[in-house]
Amino acid sequence: MPTGVKNVLIINLLIMLVSGWALFNMYTETGAEVLIAFATWSLFGTLAFAQVVLLSRMRKAWGMLRALIYVVALLQALTTMVLTKDFFSLWGALIFFGSLFVVIYLIGLRGYLNSDGFKQWLLKLQ
């Protein structure tokens, strides 16, 4: 397994842990906004699907994963725009920049999934 895939698996797991914590807090402590809750669930599900695809090297799901990551990146960008209303508080700024990091990471992840090195590893016979 290439180092890039290992890095992606670790970063995905960290983002899944943070989004899982955020979902838990959304439903236990606040009445969460529907868009933010939907975007967080979509992010969590997409990254879980990416973990399964990468760990099992599912060649046929690779194209769907790239499209799904693109859609979730757009949804996260929309969520980032919604989060600008809380930008001037410390917690709001942290959430805003965290969401912005996730958008940039998803765009980079999609680029990595399109790279020649990843394609060679994915399509290599086991």
From TrEMBL:
<feature type="transmembrane region" description="Helical">
    <location>
        <begin position="7"/>
        <end position="28"/>
    </location>
</feature>
<feature type="transmembrane region" description="Helical">
    <location>
        <begin position="90"/>
        <end position="113"/>
    </location>
</feature>
<keyword id="KW-0472">Membrane</keyword>
<feature type="transmembrane region" description="Helical">
    <location>
        <begin position="67"/>
        <end position="84"/>
    </location>
</feature>
<feature type="transmembrane region" description="Helical">
    <location>
        <begin position="34"/>
        <end position="55"/>
    </location>
</feature>
<keyword id="KW-0812">Transmembrane</keyword>
<protein>
    <submittedName>
        <fullName>Uncharacterized protein</fullName>
    </submittedName>
</protein>
<keyword id="KW-1133">Transmembrane helix</keyword>
